[in-house]
Design goal:
six-stranded mixed β-sheet, alpha+beta, five-stranded mixed β-sheet
């Protein structure tokens, strides 16, 4: 779903405000608009929503339930009244600083881009997030009509206890007078004191905001407008035998779930594709278009009428295929495992024999998980030799033959790109099972799809991971940020990224820093969702010149605002289990000068730099003592002075390389899998455990 989507109630279309010589006519027109506004109904409560601000931060309203008050102020670029009131907004923030009040602005203007709002906020001096209501659903539902409207919300009841101007200083024509009444401050004071607000609704003076969908409402047809959207975007999961909790197989079912559909759209939970639509383009983009979002929400708010015409969803049966990509060329049966009802299950590392007698190029793979509630992840890696000890230790892994994490789908290679699976040996597995109150036995399977013998791909797919197992999350911190990177010594092309964290993951992104220092944002997840993890496949591969760094950030919510947080009072470090935390962004790429007839071995050097990129938090090419944290940092700190050969108070790459030799055992756990045997391809294994198990 696209960010900035929510619900609907009342609105006015309008004209923009002008200053100078036209002030008299402007006052006359504004007076008539104010009179019309007096009849507008005000919402008693605010439904939940998730919006992304101009700086790509995600904000879900109901996650702020522990706040004492929430203040929303409407804004539009170029409005002189909004700009002139910036000092009043700052005064209001300062007056209630330290009193647990959340301040945000709301931009529902169709003409304002994210970048333009960023510039406006800087120039006008707004120092609160500006939420981008790009689909106008929040503004419509709140009954927004003008800029400079202040909404004071009580998070205990989600009631709007005050709606009006911040104070009485501003007037049309650009003039300001001495403040006599501080309406918003009085409302906040009363709310925090548990007292009723004396003036709950007042007219605001501001620039009219155009809400065309409410000015000219369209008649929406279930048969012609709504059902086709659902069939195209939702039914593949919401059908018999698929992952969705109910089947969208007729109007009655959709009607019954309409309120829930509205909620998951407004909060950006569905469709489960968390990449911000304003950043990058993706070949597997599952976001709804702005038009489709508004069509569905407006239809539901109109009562989800049946209307005329046949029911397209009931016209034919919708049943999920056993294998979404069709019958696999090879099925590997993951050894059955009985998951207890309670307790903690350590990572399991079984293997399956590779039945191939000749090598194959993998085109795609699907992990079919039987017990979705219990399987956190399954990772794989080719083993040249069958493990004598019965354990598929990740340090021996070669190429990945597929993987799964919560909510993930099939892995499909780009056109003419593949992964070589040699004959014989075995496929190692890393399985993470999580008890959920019922004992079950999982019989997952891995389906592999090969290129035909006459379709040998020209290019070779590789896998690696940007990982940071030195992370330390302070207790009660709602926005803790961590960073790590991988530096590429050779030209490459990046195909996809797979960010992964656990219950405290809040947001994630991926940047590229070019050799000249310029940076570009490749992927932004303003709200990371543990329940829906996937590869984000770029519509066009990203060129990664030699000397570039791929930089990943994760933001964690280790506070009571996070409803999934097991314990906000705990300092959290890296750990395998879901109540611990991870920093893991898997990437799929190819080396620019490699072909299936000419393998290169660049992965080992790439992954040897992983620890350096893990610890170099300020990305200056050196590791200072202050950057050492977590178990990795503690180990290095013991020998820092010994490793720091030039005694400059920091560790460079050469010094770190020497340190890794000293810490041989740790280095082997962290480094990439060994280079493949001749003829086995050059793809590194999907890392696991110390290398970033999911």
């Amino acid at each position: 779903m696209k960010t900035a989507r929510i619900f609907v109630l009342a609105a006015l279309g309008g004209a923009a405000l002008m200053a100078g010589a036209a002030a008299t006519a402007l006052n006359h027109n504004a007076g008539r608009a104010v009179a019309a506004e007096s009849a507008a109904a005000q919402p008693m409560t605010v439904d939940n929503f998730m919006l992304v601000d101009a700086d790509l931060g995600g904000h879900e309203l109901y996650r702020m339930a522990d706040k004492s008050a929430i203040v929303l102020i409407t804004q539009m670029n170029g409005c002189p009244i909004s700009r002139s009131q910036a000092p009043a907004y700052k005064e209001l923030q300062q007056q209630f600083a330290g009193k647990n009040v959340e301040f945000m602005m709301l931009n529902s203007s169709l003409q304002d881009s994210r970048e333009a709002v960023q510039a406006e906020a800087k120039e006008a001096g707004y120092d609160m997030p500006v939420l981008m209501d790009s689909n106008q659903l929040v503004g419509e539902s709140l009954g927004v009509q003008r800029t400079a409207e202040v909404f004071v919300i009580n998070p205990k009841t989600w009631q709007v206890v005050y709606h009006g101007p911040v104070d009485d200083r501003s007037d049309y024509g650009g003039g300001q007078k001495k403040v006599e009444h501080r309406f918003a401050a009085d409302a906040l004071t009363a709310l925090l004191a548990g007292q009723p607000v004396q003036q709950a609704s007042l007219q605001s003076k501001g620039c009219l905001i155009d809400f065309p969908a409410k000015a000219k409402p369209q008649k929406i047809s279930y048969a012609h407008d709504v059902a086709p959207i659902l069939e195209k975007n939702c039914v593949s999961c919401h059908q018999k035998g698929s992952i969705g909790p109910f089947a969208m197989d007729n109007y009655a079912m959709v009607k019954g779930f309409a309120p829930m559909i509205r909620e998951v759209i407004r909060t950006d939970r569905m469709p489960p594709y968390n990449a911000d639509p304003h950043v990058g383009k993706f070949s597997d983009d599952k976001n709804l278009s702005a038009k489709d979002i508004k069509t569905l929400v407006h239809w539901i708010e109109e009562g989800a009428p049946r209307g005329d015409g046949p029911d397209p969803l009931a016209a034919k049966p919708h049943v999920a295929q056993e294998w979404p990509l069709g019958k696999p060329d090879l099925i590997l049966n993951v050894p059955a495992y009985t998951i207890p009802a309670t307790g903690v299950v350590d990572y399991q590392r079984p293997y399956v024999l590779n039945p191939l007698t000749e090598g194959k190029w993998i085109k795609a793979s699907t992990v079919k998980v039987e017990q979705r509630q219990a399987v956190h992840h399954l990772l794989t890696g080719y083993l040249k030799e069958v493990p004598a000890d019965g354990k598929a230790n990740e340090s021996r892994w070669g190429v990945s033959v597929g993987g799964y994490a919560v909510g993930a789908e099939s892995e499909v290679s780009p056109t003419n790109v593949g992964t070589y699976l040699p004959p014989g040996g075995a496929v190692g597995l890393q399985a993470h099972y999580t008890p959920f109150g019922k004992e079950v036995t999982d019989h997952s399977q891995i389906g592999l799809y090969f290129y035909k013998p006459n379709e040998k791909p020209k290019l070779v797919l590789h896998n690696s991971v940007i990982v940071d197992n030195s992370i330390v999350l302070p207790p009660n911190d709602p926005r803790h940020k961590e960073v790590a990177y991988l530096e590429f010594a050779h030209d490459a092309l990046l195909y996809s990224a797979f960010p992964h964290a656990h219950y405290r993951g809040y947001a994630a992104d991926l940047w590229i820093r070019y050799p000249d220092g310029k940076e570009k944002l490749l992927l932004s997840l303003p709200r990371y969702d543990f329940n829906w993890q996937r590869d984000y496949n770029f519509a066009e591969p990203i060129k990664v010149p030699a000397g570039s760094k791929l930089i990943a950030h994760f933001i964690y919510d280790n506070s009571k605002e996070n409803p999934a947080n097991p314990d906000p009072n705990k300092t959290v470090v890296w750990g395998d289990q879901s109540w611990e935390e991870m920093f893991y962004t898997a990437i799929r790429y190819r080396w620019a000068d490699e072909t299936s007839d000419r393998f290169v071995n660049y992965d080992e050097a790439l992954n040897q730099g992983r620890i350096f990129g893990m610890l170099d938090d300020n990305i200056d090419g050196k590791i200072q003592r202050t950057e050492l944290k977590g178990q990795v940092g503690d180990n290095l700190a013991k020998y820092f002075d010994l490793i720091d050969k030039d005694h400059d108070g920091s560790l460079d790459k050469a010094e770190m390389a020497e340190a890794m030799k000293m810490m041989g055992g740790f280095r082997r756990r962290q480094a990439a899998t060994p280079a493949p045997a001749p003829g086995a391809g050059a793809g590194s294994g999907q890392p696991g455990a110390g290398k970033g198990g999911r």
